[in-house]
Amino acid sequence: MMKFRFRRQGADPQREKLKQELFAFHKTVEHGFPNQPSALAFDPELRIMAIGTRSGAVKIYGAPGVEFTGLHQDAATVTQMHFLPGQGRLLTLLDDNSLHLWELVSCGGCAHLEETLSFQPPSRPGFDSASSLPSLSRVTVVLLVADGARAALGTEGGSVFFLDVGTLTLLEGQTLGPDEILRSLPDDYRCGKALGPVESLQGHLHDPSKILIGYSRGLLVIWSQAARCVDRVFLGNQQLESLCWERSGGTVVSSHSDGSYAVWTVGSGSSLVLQPTEATTPYGPFPCKAINKILWRNCRSGGRFLIFSGGMPRASYGDRHCVSVLQAETLVTLDFTSRVIDFFTVHSMQPKDDFDDPQALAVLLEEELVVLDLQTPGWPALPAPYLAPLHSSAITCSAHVANVPAKLWARLVSAGEKQSPQPASSASSWPITGGRNLAQEPLQHGLLLTGHEDGTVRFWDASGVALQPLYKLGTAGLFQTDFEHADSLGQAAEDDWPPFRKVGCFDPYSDDPRLGVQKVALCKYTAQMVVAGTAGQVLVLELSDMPAERALSVASVDLLQDREGFTWKGHDRLGPSTGPLSWPVGFQPLVLVQCLPPAAVTAVTLHTEWGLVAFGTSHGFGLFDYQCKSPVLARCTLHPNDSLAMEGPLSRVKSLKKSLRQSFRRIRKSRVSGKKRVMNANSKLQEANAQLAEQACPHDLEVAPVQRRIEPRSADDSLSGVVRCLYFADTFLRDAVHHGPTLWAGTNSGSVFAYALEVPTATAGSEKRPERAVEAVLGKEVQLMHRAPVVAIAVLDGRGRPLPEPYEASRDLAQAPDMQGGHAVLIASEEQFKVFTLPKVSAKTKFKLTAHEGCRVRKVALATFTSVACEDYAETCLACLTNLGDVHVFSVPGLRPQVHYPCIRKEDISAIASCVFTRHGQGFYLISPSEFERFSLSARNITEPLCSLDICCPRGTACASYRLHESPKLSQANGTPSIILAPRSCDGSPSPARSKGAGDMPQTPEATLSPLSVDSATSADTTLDTTGDVTVEDVKDFLGSSEEPQKNVRNAVQDEACSYPILIK
Amino acid sequence: MNRSFHKSQTLRFYDCGAVEVKSKFGAEFRRFSLNRHRPGEFKDFYQLVVHAHRLTGADVTIGYADVHGDLLPINNDDNFCKAVSSACPLLRVFVQKREEADSCSFGAGALSRKRRMLAGLREEGLRRRALPAIGLPRDFRPVSSIIDVDILPETHRRVRLYRHGCEKPLGFYIRDGTSMRVTAQGLEKVPGIFISRMVPGGLAESTGLLAVNDEVLEVNGIEVAGKTLDQATDMMIANSHNLIITVKPANQRNNVVRGSRASGSSGQSTDSTASPQSLPPVQNFHPDELESDEEADIVIEGALTPPPPPTGSLLRLNGHCSIHRLLSSLQADPRHSLALPPGGIEEHGPAVTL
After folding, report:
1. pLDDT of residue A686
2. CA A978 from chain center: how many Å?
3. Do B295 and A785 count as a contact with CB atoms less than 8 A apart?
4. Which of A202, A307, A479, B337 has its CA 20 to 30 A from that of A133?
């Protein structure tokens, strides 16, 4: 027993220092679209846009690569946001009625979005003030007046309060109560009724002292703040939704809850206006829904833009999410697939201009951002350089390809451009251009592949901060699905009125769940890829620069191998399309291999040099020679007692009793063994079924506390035959002298099968191997005694490095592996890692993670970590994500634990399931269905936003331009406190990734110090493990005055040897 | 400890009624066969062995390796019948002169120990001699033990459960709960993990060392304080082949009183009141087994020379089936140095190493 106490190795200072140079944990940037956006703001001067979310996150976007993130302390919905124009400051209103002032704080070389002030209005005023002052109940609208120095708050009680923005304090004595307004109204309009909440507050561009106030009841008032009197009164009678004050101030447009809008003229005559000059219900005459927001924009070319959301006929199109754009006679009803949150136009804000001349319309929807170019006829949509809707169909799997060769990159980009032609004119470019991206061009191209529920695979440029779509591969066209005809019928039936135009790409509805992509693998040297799906379809494709037309060749492999007593009760296979199909430029299918039974593919691997693809399902695995288009091997891994494997996830013919029994078994299973849950649609469906089943029989709901059964895994656990990983390697399986191609497969029950392959070798000079049959012979079977699912297999060469990818060695793209023997195989199960010698499979080293830590392995990857101190020094390590959301790094092949960091909340199962590691120590996981969080384990390889913004000083006297560098972000949108730790990179080091911000620009002292370590408030135990961090106080101290940085630079130069911050406890 | 059985295609292939016997005395082997269905009496077998090894007149003990690799004695008709009937396919018999037979010759893991002794002969011998010659109940297979009594507080109990060679389930459940701790601030409620249920007839229940509402403090030397129920569950399952849990028994009346303990600090102490298994007599475990939680994974080597094409696939298919039978029949029993396959795995070529 004593050995447990002795296992903790003593801290070797040399090694500890090296670890600091190799490993550091940062959450660097969030890719994708913010989950559940709730507010939008735009600063026309700085040209930056802010999006607030329901979880209290604030994200600011400018030019591509310019991103800032903040998070409110309380996870309350951000209901409104207003930029203080040109100041880089933002006022936010949360639904808990509190106001917060955010600032893009720049201190020396490091800047970030920071909350500077907050204000909670007194919820219950004292008795004395209640009599004289109406209570500041609930703030409904906010208007910034006088260049953002003051804010007017409209409340539910009908009062307007004034607030000093600089200090966020109420300005006493300026409050405008509804009584004051009521006094100036004619008696017949008053008739004892209240005005209702303030619905809208609008300022005037030219006369900041005047405020247009709209009350819910319909009354519009122009209030002169300077004279403290009512200037104009418009006696509206329709319940008000929103207001817009035209640029010149002569016209007011109001929108109403009955779907109408009214135009009022601010004449010079009487202060009392009884009737609007124009009142229209655009989608009448039948009852319409409310017009929630309306904008009026005039143009130099004559005519005006009237842009409004909602107002659709209630009965026929009440469920549509629409924004209507009306200019002169042109009306377009933009038909979106998700709810409209807010919208704005990008237009001139110079007071001297007479016209708005809107350039673009940006519409924030629940699930995407759509920007329309209003200057190009036809108002085409502009492709967004960021905020990519990753989840346009639910993500079912993802993969990362590092170091993509430039040739493949160019081919992918051109294939993508042919798919969605870029707008030709240069005028119609992305309108949100604030800030400057200081990040250097990434040195290498990183590709993120996401597989989706609708059968598409999307290729994203993950090289930099902005995740950009490159190419989209659809596989649905290869199959005959039942839903094709219904779709075309629906479109034909649509009327001409209203003139709908479908905009946006968010389409969560999948035609057929069987199309879902389960596994993706891409060979970056040959541009061949394999896409495997839910109905056992394995598709091998190749990138082609020429369109083609040919029939799909189909082969099927029976994985059951005549096993008796099993019948598949799950879904049918997808019928492949017959006849010649035309293929555009891009990935074109080589062959479709259909697994039988058509269960979801659980593992896939591709070896392009040998022309082989291997795939596994819950029944077994197969090997297919796609060059000769012939099956090589099929192996059933089913255990005889495993009956669950036969019931497909979509089986609808189960008896109630049976499904109940299974549900309980499944629940028990998940409790006992914590089996990996693949969070795809099918397992969600199963879970939902299980929950339903539980609710259906309440007598089974135990009052007793949750229990866990302690029982070793037995061989006949259900789903023991699921193939979890497949791996090709050129190694020693037969004997220690001859190496050759091998295939490795690991199952859910801890079995590993190793096959020796006989692949005819290519003749010299030709890429293709001769057309002879490939043979596979079973070489080894390993049964891990702990029977935990095998998560990954990798072969290490004589120097302990993982073998290179196909073609890397033969084309001299990577260092050739040591083939002098001494190979070892690393088998990672959910419970432990083990290295076995080859060819005699005997255990060499191991680490029992579960026995020591009580956590289980979810994802592993071998990654190369390069030292920040020395570019030539790199180590290959095993990165591992556990079911508790922690990331561990182990040395290879010694399997010594190196570092570990808390990364994901353990409750966030889908985030853990979605995690993918890159080859160079970074990783991605989904923090919401639409957002990838990027993190970095490497101290050197970090991708984070580095950007500058030219901000006018808040006083407005001088417009000094200074640089802002955003530090590694301090908080995260999903509300978990993140740990930001960054070792300072030494200024002289030739670090390609770290010094990217300081690459091209003049080396100001601030810039040299740029990537500073900032530690958010983290728990003590994380700081213990992550040495090399500086506390917040130190950073502030560090950058306190302008002399400080220079002094520090000198220090850094002086003691270059210890360029790492000392751990301050 | 790798040992290959290179197949010898013998008559057992063709005559299933015969049991091949390989009898070993010292370094000598004798081979003969017995009728599986009518093995005869022990007396005759004894004579046959003595005669075969030319040991007439000497007093010998006869043992055999059972399916789990344990060395078990043959000294009466019953265990002789059991030995012959359970031989699969080879019956390995070990003969020793009575006066040379050492005290720990029989029992679980005895074979492996013997082999290991060659390596660490000196220390092994020393340690063995240091053992007081108390009459331990050597005729039982250990299923549990209380260990580390000398280093634990008297209120705690560290229990080791042996699952090997035992078909019983471990058989207990754990739950979350709160326990009272005395701290500087007085009594404090802290979350803890408790045994919530025993499976009737399971190993945990049959040992009598664990009970419902016992608080689990450690699992294989690692504290569970601060760990969730799921983490503790995973730790226990990961260690289930050699589970050592430290509990604070709910019933504190049966605690070991330290003063009365005689067996020193060897780490082994009172054996449980386990019900005897229906298995032949075994000896108690040896302390050095504590260190040997080495779990051996089974590696099955395939016939790597490609079989002739016409029959190849058929043969391979058969091999798979038998491998499956083998894997399913081998209940997690990592400790045995010899896991002889009950199925005819050798018939198709692959050898078993461990």
Report:
1. 57
2. 16
3. yes
4. A202
pTM of the model: 0.74
- Quote the minimal CA–CA distance from B179 to chain A in Å: 15
| Distance (Å, whole) CA A358 – CA A341 | 20
Mean pLDDT by 10 residues, chain A (1065 residues): 45 87 91 93 91 93 88 91 89 92 75 84 53 64 85 89 88 84 82 83 85 91 86 88 88 92 83 83 90 91 88 90 89 92 89 84 93 87 87 92 92 88 60 82 90 93 89 90 50 65 82 91 93 95 92 91 77 88 91 93 94 93 93 88 54 47 55 42 55 48 71 72 93 88 93 92 64 87 90 91 83 77 91 91 91 91 92 92 95 92 93 94 93 93 80 44 38 36 35 38 34 34 32 29 40 38 37
Q: Which two tokens stand for residue B301?
A: 């080597």
Residues 6+ apart with CB under 8 A from A873: A21, A866, A867
Question: Is the Cβ pair B297, A5 closer than 8 Å?
Answer: no
- Interface contact flag, A777 B303, Cβ < 8 Å: yes
Find chain A residues with C-beta within 8 A of B316's C-beta: 777-778
Give the residue ranges of DSSP H helices in A433-542.
484-492
Is the CB of B327 inside 8 Å of chain A's CB atoms?
Answer: yes
User: Is B319–A710 a contact, with Cβ atoms under 8 angstroms apart?
Assistant: no
Which residue in chain B is spatially nearest to A707 when comparing CA positions? B175
Interatomic CA distance for residues A983 and A989, integer angstroms = 13
pLDDT given for residue A603 in this prediction: 96
Task: Give Cβ neighbours of residue A841 (< 8 Å, ≥ 6 apart).
Answer: A780, A782, A825, B299
Residue B290 with chain A: CB contacts under 8 Å: 1
The average confidence (pLDDT) of chain B is 68
If residue A579 lies in a helix (H) or strand (E), which one and from where to where? none
Tell me, what amino acid is at A86?
A: G
- Which chain A residues are Cβ-neighbours of B331 within 8 angstroms? 714-715
Q: Do A785 and B297 touch (CB under 8 A)?
A: yes
Give the residue on B whose Cα is nearest the Cα of A633.
Answer: B313
Paired with A363 in beta bridges are: A343, A370
Which 3-state string (H, E, C) describes A381-413?
EECCCCCCCCCCCCEEEEEEEEEECHHHHHHHH
| Residues near B31 by beta carbon (within 8 Å), at least 6 away in sequence | B20, B21, B22, B23
Question: 3-state DSSP call for residue A50?
Answer: strand
Q: Is B221 on the interface with A (CB under 8 A)?
A: yes
| Contact present, A371 and A379 (Cβ < 8 Å) | no
| Helix pair A681-696, A656-672: axis angle to 10 deg | 110
For A337, half-sphere exposure in the C-beta direction (CA atoms, 13 angstrom radius) is 16
Question: pLDDT digit string (tens) for B182-233?
Answer: 878 888 888 999 999 998 888 888 888 899 999 999 999 899 988 999 999 9
| Residues A818 and A798 sit within 8 Å (Cβ to Cβ) | yes
Position A1017 scores a pLDDT of 34
Instruction: Check: CB of residue A631 under 8 Å from CB of residue A554.
Output: no
Sheet with strand A381-382: strands edge to edge: A340-346, A360-365, A369-373, A381-382
Contact between chains at A714 and B233 (C-beta distance less than 8 A): no
- Tokens 């795995």 belong to residue: B345
B18-25 and B90-97 as β-strands: parallel, antiparallel, unpaired?
parallel
Helices of type H across A439-539: 484-492
The pair of three-digit structure tokens given for residue A254, joined into one six-digit string: 């109001």
Provide the β-strand partners of residue A113: A104
d(CA A729, CA A724): 17
DSSP code at position A815: P
Q: pLDDT value at position A380?
A: 87
Chain B 238-257, CB below 8 Å of chain A: which residues? Answer: 238-241, 243-244
User: Which residue, among B198, B299, B336, would best test binding to A if mutated, counting the most A CBs under 10 Å from its CB?
Assistant: B299
